[in-house]
Design brief:
This protein is mostly beta strands and 181 residues long. The chain is built from 3 helices and 12 strands; from the N terminus they run H-E-E-E-E-E-H-E-E-E-E-E-H-E-E. The protein is 12% helix and 45% strand. The strands form 3 sheets. Strands 1, 3, 6, 7, 8 and 10 form a 6-stranded antiparallel beta sheet that branches. Strands 2-9-4-5 form a 4-stranded antiparallel beta sheet.
């Protein structure tokens, strides 16, 4: 519900980030970490120059009320499950080409997924060659989009204004509080 109200609210911004580089087998590459509340919108990655690139995990981690909520997928797994066409509720393949050694996937939740303190995107390479005869570096290009809450208090205040509520007020001379709805 709140995501639909964003055009009327203050204290937020869209964030689009991209990162390119090379990944070594047996390593992890943190693409980005956001330590602020917000909403996850989408992520995608192109992995190439090695047939082992299809085994790289694209890992998105969103904090939850009690523990982190991981979303983890790899091009090979999506291919094996037949998730090869766009969908509006999860991960799917966009490229799977063994001859060109190119693999790409996207993650598009059906609705923005909220996070309260932390959001992370990383790549996790397989520990050793799976299809190649030697460990080849894997070229990557990863992008993601989120809505980041830049000013929590301003955001909350604008939510109260839009919903027609206001902060609870302390009554003069009375120890209790009144609440406004």
């Amino acid at each position: 519900m709140l995501y639909g109200l964003l055009p009327l609210l203050r204290g937020w911004m869209y964030v689009h980030r991209e990162k390119q580089g090379y990944l070594t087998l047996g390593k992890e590459e943190v693409i980005d970490v956001i330590k602020a509340p917000g909403f996850f919108l989408s992520a995608g990655g192109l992995l190439e120059e090695s047939r082992d690139a299809k085994y790289v995990h694209i890992h998105v981690e969103i904090d939850g009320p009690d523990r982190a909520y991981p979303i983890d997928f790899m091009p090979y797994g999506l291919y094996r499950f037949g998730l090869v066409s766009p969908m509006n509720f999860g991960a799917y393949l966009t490229i799977y080409d063994d001859d060109k050694k190119q693999y790409a996937a996207a993650l598009t939740p059906s609705h923005p997924i909220p996070f309260s303190k932390r959001f992370e995107v990383k790549l996790i390479a397989p520990p050793q060659p799976i299809e190649e005869t030697e460990a080849l570096p894997i070229r990557y290009h990863v992008a993601y989009e989120v809505v980041r809450i830049t000013d929590v208090e301003e955001f909350k205040e604008s939510v109260r204004e839009v919903l027609g509520t206001r902060r609870a007020e302390v009554l003069p001379g009375v120890g209790g509080r009144t609440e406004s709805f």
